[in-house]
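Hallway conversation turned thread

IA: we were arguing at lunch whether anyone had actually written out GGDEF domain-containing response regulator end to end. Turns out nobody had. So, for the record, here is the sequence (279 residues) and right after it the structure tokens. Reply here if something looks off.
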Amino acid sequence: AKERDGNNFQFFSSEMNIKVLERMMLENSMRKALEREDLFLLYQPQVDTRTGEITGLEALLRWRHPDMGVIVPDKFIYLAEETGLIIPIGEWVLRTACFQAKAWQQQGFPPMRMAVNLSAKQFAQKDLSGTIAAILLESGLDPDWLELEITESTIMKDPDSNTRMLQKLKDMGISLAIDDFGTGYSSLSYLKHFPINRLKIDRMFVRDIAINPDDAAIVEIIISMAHTLKLSVTAEGVETRPLMEFLASRNCVEMQGYLFSRPVTAEEITTILENGLKY
Ligand code: C2E
Ligand code: CA
Ligand code: CA
Ligand code: CA
């Protein structure tokens, strides 16, 4: 038995070493990615379904890895958070998105919101508002056109201090959206006090509207709650026309999802802006 335990221990420990090694390699190549500009952004339209106009774009991060190809954020954001690399990466995202938004405006396209995702670590930085102010100044983008997406769970990590940060950002003229709404645990009493502009209904609820009456009910409640609190509401993960129709019939106007467009490069967005969105 002793021997077997020993083997087990060795098995686990070598497995752990591989994990540690993998992490170190990933962290290392993430640092290099930032230096070598292997990161890039895709943009996904947010659509006013009454008019078919694009009212906003969400910037979504990608990593072009030299050996592994394009890596999606779910595979590396957590590690970027753990190592603190999310701070410079997040700053790069904000800067790139703001400059791109300004570029489209200068090309004469009607202005659209540029929505940028913020991680908990970024949000906990005291000088976040200063960093963002500097980026807005550098890029020349009017703060009205920047929207920050923050999850419920990020805010609820420290609701009082985070509410103060939200207020500071809002006072700068930036708009604020709660991302993945419905998946976290923010109480309604908090929600009322958050200085936010928009709720984004999580894809998880939207996806199953047609097959799960509970999800349909949750989505209806979120929409009417947003309206009661005078917040805008965006449904994410809208993949089909019936989903769009269900949401529209419940007075949800703004939607985002594969039905309208997948996340695409800035060049592809330019083409869409020139020709209009087809769905
Ligand atoms: P999210 O903020 O909830 O972003 C929406 C995700 O849903 C994106 O995944 C998008 O590609 C995907 N999506 C959009 N429409 C549809 C649809 O109709 N069907 C389906 N199945 N999926 C759809 P993506 O780009 O892989 O991003 C995943 C998550 O990574 C994001 O979730 C966000 O939390 C995070 N993320 C992305 N970019 C950044 C960033 O720059 N900074 C930070 N901190 N997090 C980011
Ligand atoms: Ca988001
Ligand atoms: Ca989301
Ligand atoms: Ca999500």
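OS: looked through it. The CA atoms of residues 9 and 15 lie 10 Å apart.
IA: good, adding that to the notes. The two ends are 65 Å apart (CA to CA).
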